[in-house]
Amino acid sequence: MNEETETIDEFLTRRAADVEDAIRAAAAAEILPRFRCLTAADVDQKSGPHDLVTDADRLAEKRLTEALGALLPGSVVVGEEAVHANPATYEAIRGDLPVWIVDPVDGTRQFVHGDDGFCTLVALAHRGVVLASWTYAAARGRLATAVRGRGAFLDGERLSAGAPAAGRDLVVATSHPDYTTEAQKRALRPLWTDGVAPRPCGSAGLEYLAVARGELDAVAFSWEAAWDHAAGLLLVEEAGGTHLTRSGEPFRIGGGNALPFTAARDTATAHRLTELLSTVAV
């Protein structure tokens, strides 16, 4: 471990609680006061009718960008809304500086509809490796955390994904059809087979948490946006699970992955799903 990485490791030892406080504060100030109180003027579309953004997304990301950057001088922030405004911002994930990867409201559609199935996702990565993550389900008052090599926790209790029970169908949350192209639907179609029970995903962050808790066997997704995946992938890893792309390699947050990919409770499940996914030419 080089000196710069050791500095980040020391930061996580000393200031992880400050990161949690910053996330809770952003949610308390910008997200929860707007939950079930949005007006039509508070909601906009980005790329289409299912791709929504609200004032809560924008303002929470702004607050987190300021707070997280101040906590770790020399770091940069890559947030979903900042990348939407300036796609070049995403390149920082592939750079040499520590990077905070932020999705202020993961599950914006649920948030807009008054459903509590949304969360705030924050990950800290360096040179393509996710080192720590925070998944905060503000409306449910639950916080999941993970630090590489130190385990995954939900409200302070260690998570263990375990293995699926033998003899039952694998329950897999897949990319929602409202957000997938025909080609992406075709790539996921092999999961509709004996022994697998696919269903559309909700908030990606909460689906990853369900895998880490052993409540869901796996996810299978067809898009790469790091803000949706970085926090959850580390959470699943530290709970004992694994992630693989259809080529059999781990998912890389910097991009260039063979899609779709899966994150699963255990290695056997991940391999079974990637074998299915690799049967369709993409």
CATH fold title of the largest domain: Fructose-1,6-Bisphosphatase, Chain A, domain 1
Intertermini distance = 38 Å
As a percent range, the share of helical residues equals 25-40%
CATH superfamily of the largest domain: Fructose-1,6-Bisphosphatase, subunit A, domain 1
Would you state the CATH class of the largest domain? Alpha Beta
Q: In what order do the strands lie side by side in the largest sheet? A: 3-4-5-6-7-8-9
Task: Please tell me about this protein's structure.
It is a single chain. By secondary structure, this protein is of the alpha+beta class. The chain has helices spanning 3-31, 55-71, 80-85, 108-112, 182-188, 204-212, 226-238, 267-277; strands spanning 43-48, 51-54, 76-79, 99-106, 119-126, 129-137, 142-147, 151-154, 157-158, 170-174, 196-200, 218-221, 242-245, 261-264. The protein folds into two domains: 3-158, Fructose-1,6-Bisphosphatase, subunit A, domain 1 (Fructose-1,6-Bisphosphatase, Chain A, domain 1), CATH 3.30.540.10; 170-277, D-Maltodextrin-Binding Protein, domain 2. It is globular, with a radius of gyration of 18 Å. Helix 1 runs antiparallel to helix 2. It is built from eight helices and 14 strands. The model is unreliable at 1-5 (pLDDT under 50). 34% of the residues lie in helices and 26% in strands. The strands form three sheets. It has a seven-stranded mixed β-sheet, sandwiched between helices. The protein has a five-stranded mixed β-sheet with strand order 11-10-12-14-13, sandwiched between helices. Strands 1-2 form a two-stranded antiparallel ribbon. Keywords: Hydrolase, Magnesium, Metal-binding. InterPro entries: Inositol_monoP_metal-BS, Inositol_monophosphatase-like, Inositol_monophosphatase_CS. Its EC number is 3.1.3.25.
